[in-house]
Amino acid sequence: MTSSIFLTMAGWTSDKFRLSCIDNNGLKRTLLKMLILDNGTKNSNIEAERTATEYLVDQGVPTANANKSLLSFLAINALELSAPASPVLLECNAPTVPPGWLQLSGHPKSIAPLANGIVRKRISGPNDTELLAYRQLMVDPHAIKVVPKFLGVHQVAGEHFIDLHNMLHGFTEPNVMDIKMGFRTFTESEVSNTALREDLYQKMIAVDPSAPSADEHARQAITKLRYMQFRENMSSTQEKGFRIEALRMRGCSPVTDLKTIKTDHQIRTTIGHFVNGRRSIAKDILKRLRQMRTLIEKSEFFQRHQVLGSSVFIVYDDHQVGVWLIDFAKALPLPPGTKVTHRRRWQMGNCEEGLLHGFDELIRTMEAVQQQAQHSSVRHQSRATDV
Fold this sequence. Notes:
The chain has 2 domains: 4-183 and 241-373, Inositol polyphosphate kinase (D-amino Acid Aminotransferase, Chain A, domain 1, 2-Layer Sandwich), CATH 3.30.470; 194-232, no CATH class. The chain is 37% helix and 14% strand. The protein has helices spanning 14-19, 52-58, 63-77, 87-93, 129-138, 198-207, 214-219, 224-233, 237-240, 264-275, 279-298, 300-304, 355-386, and strands spanning 111-113, 118-123, 150-156, 159-165, 175-181, 242-248, 305-307, 311-316, 321-326, 331-333. The strands form 3 sheets. It has a 4-stranded antiparallel β-sheet. Helix 6 runs parallel beside helix 8 (224-233) and helix 11 (279-298) runs antiparallel to helix 13. The longest helix has 32 residues, at 355-386. Residues 1-16, 22-57, 63-72 and 76-108 have low confidence and may be disordered.
């Protein structure tokens, strides 16, 4: 794939962004790299040279419905799925699965859209972390206004599923963006082992040979904590408390490989392109982000949990804007006696993850984007008057 949308964003320009918007067929040969939103995992199982549209048309789905389904695929993957689904999920719901459902050979199937704006997601069982989180979120008067609506849990052939609101329901040809929140997206248990690992050292130098210290080069091994922090420092995660994971504009191919967007200018430029200079869109997103921050600050759920790896999911079309906080697979109850601000820097044992710090920074960024859109509108009106 030679399209510059898959290059790093160090040289991000408007021209590179526009390359992704040539036509609706731009998804050809991109599904092998398409919007994998689980903190860097690459899916090598998607068949090259074969698009979702081609697959669906082969299955007898009308082209219009097949193209529309690509947006659903994006929204579904933005839910950060972790458990592979079984054929039971599709077999038991075959009569109600809409024609836009994607089922690519080899692709891990964790979620399926049902009728009436519902998606069904496989979970590990009755004690699944995300299920427990959603049950508590739905009875929290503040948190329930921030997240997709939880519609129930089901058991089919020994497997468990949850039903969630499909965030794209009611939107027409929407633009979508996924923003990973927090300056820590890994659990403390993941990095508690201080053993030196040669494999992680090799992964580090494969990305950046200059990253290891002199001692690390000498040992040719690093801890998992060191590697995780190195990986997250490549993006805006550690400084800003958020990073842009992926986006898709109406009529365009998905834009991915955004994890190296780090500077203020790169972030503002990317989000500015996403809102397409539309001041009203930026204003509505900003209003919703401020509302969500206030609700999270008041929520008992967020006072009792560390929320790792969650995302702000933004969707808009010509008529409406929607913003939600999604993915609670790593929403972990705090140990007894532990309190978090969601803003303090993380140290081992304090359970801070920087969720609200990320909201603070994202809101500041959106304020700058809105201001820039306003200035652009004023300049445009001034030029029109001069003419």
